[in-house]
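Re: export button greyed out
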Amino acid sequence: MNQELRSVDVIASSLLENGYIADRALATTIYLAASLEKPVLLEGEPGVGKTQLACVLADVLQARLIRLQCFEGIDSYSALYEWNYPKQLMDMKLRELQGEGALQTLDIFTADYLLKRPLLDAIQAGRDESPPVLLIDEIDRADEEFEAFLLEVLSDFQISIPELGTVKATSRPLVILTSNGTRELHGALKRRCLYHWIDYPTPSQELAILEARVPGINHQLATKVCHFVDKLREESFYKKPGIAETIDWAEALIALGIVSLDSHLVTATAGCLLKYKRDLDVFGLDKIELMLSDLAEREGSGEGGL
Amino acid sequence: MGMALSHHLQQFVRQLKEAGIVVDSSRWIDCCRAVAVVGVSRRDDFKCAVRATLIADHGDYPLFDQLFERYWSSRASPLLIVDQELLAENTAALEGALSHEPIEHLGLENPARDCSYSQLDIVRRKDLSTLSSQELLMAQQEFARLAKLLARDRNRRRVAAKKGREVDFRKWTRVRQGCPLNSVIPYRRRNRNKSRLFVLCDISGSMERYSRFFLHLLYAMGQSFHQVSVALFATRVEDVTLEFGRSNPEEFRRRLSDEITAWSGGTKIGHSIDAFLALNADRMNAATAVTLVISDGWDTGESELLHRSMVSLRRRSRKILWLNPLLGDSRYQPLCRGMVTALPFVDEFLPAHNIESLSTAIRKISTLL
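Workaround output, generated via the alternate export path:
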């Protein structure tokens, strides 16, 4: 096992050093994934940092990040390998021009004509370098057939290419699957993985993230921003603001030279936080004023302190 | 002591099962392995290890937390004195033993399978308005299963075609490796399912007893089948297709329940159908649209308007299905004004009072799509 993953404490501190604020439960899940050699399924609302975790882990382990972005209709060919058809046809045509005999000796199903896609890349990667981090992003966008195929690959970490033979991984990569929870994943896939739900950060966690990602931000402003966004997430919007939106908003406020929040300012910059018209329609001046006064009250009574 | 901890874990798993959380034997083995790796010296790490291996749904987290606190706080001693090596050894032995042991002896089967066939059967036949919360859970699972019947292949998948714009290279290079270039070029095309399903669901006061079930069903349909548009109506129409982005059906229902109570006060079916047609003007055409209306037919609007709107709907749909929960009663006759006006335009008039009738209706819809 990689030295960086030798204990929960080491993982937690490595993540922190690389700018990823995580709670201990997540560090424990990563530790288990590395020790038990099981994939991790991270579920959570969009924008909570699921994909970011994989990137940070790759940095921590000084390993390559291999990313498989799932989309609607993805099939095994897009994920595993594809033959380089234009090259095959071109070479066949060239050989054909040389004469009948030459064409017979050409084998178009060799490694030269193979285009490796992320999964095959991940399987073969372990040989010459440290095991990579395999990120299978937004698995809920794919369909059930793809899930079944993925299950097969993740179980044995070997695939057989009919023309070339079986390819087996020498060392298992750390596999992270992410899902936005838009649909229920198949039970078999869930059984294969360790499960962790990443929730929105608490105001104090978000403050730490903000101060790490926006260096030099005024502490008072950052605190107000985090509390406000936390309150905003209690409302039932179609799409609640994620961490990236909080960072964007903070940067926008800094660019405008703002130090304290008022309802007009918030309305003017609401586009940083809410990205759907139906949400912006609901997010009116009176609502914002109510929220700001609630926060001021809480701060005054000492509850809102971090 | 190692055996004692694994025994406690087994007991805990039983408690989870009784509470309705599904745990099978492979998860339990993983749990034991995880605990062996993480140890029991830190309570939060132990809890995380158990949770990550046994729980696979965010919705179960609160229940798990409650049960965990209740179980493990009263049995603190196993957490304090456990020999980790001993646990690891026992886990290996357990794994070996479990691979030969039939699952029944561990009592870890899926709780849904625990229901004898007759109990599930009874629930399926019971009128929806009389179902308890526990039975609602079963109904939800049933709806989710049924809704999958509607799911179709995604657009990007391809099927073979005789001619078209896309060449099927994969097939072509395999046709005859000797000389494929002189063979007939195989093509492929999108496997597009053009049918769209439009659903209009009545949520007025008279349908109140049934509406929450229909909302669960509509939610399940929206999750499985992407080409569906759903609108709810009473005195006005609201398009709720985008709400299906929510992963939790209860949240979906809660969000809408406030709006629903605001609409109570009669049903204007004709007016609602007109508004619905206007909303979907760009997508609804007679070649591809299948319309489903879920209503009891009690109409407080004008029947002349209803007649006209049914004519328009007929022109814009390939098939119209009407689901009426009142049809479940054998004594029911569609005599109310609204039903009488609408019935001549309807292709299929189906009951929708229990799970069984809904499953028949969905099967019918899936054959039409």
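Residues 2-18 of chain B form the longest helix (17 residues). The button fix ships in the next patch.
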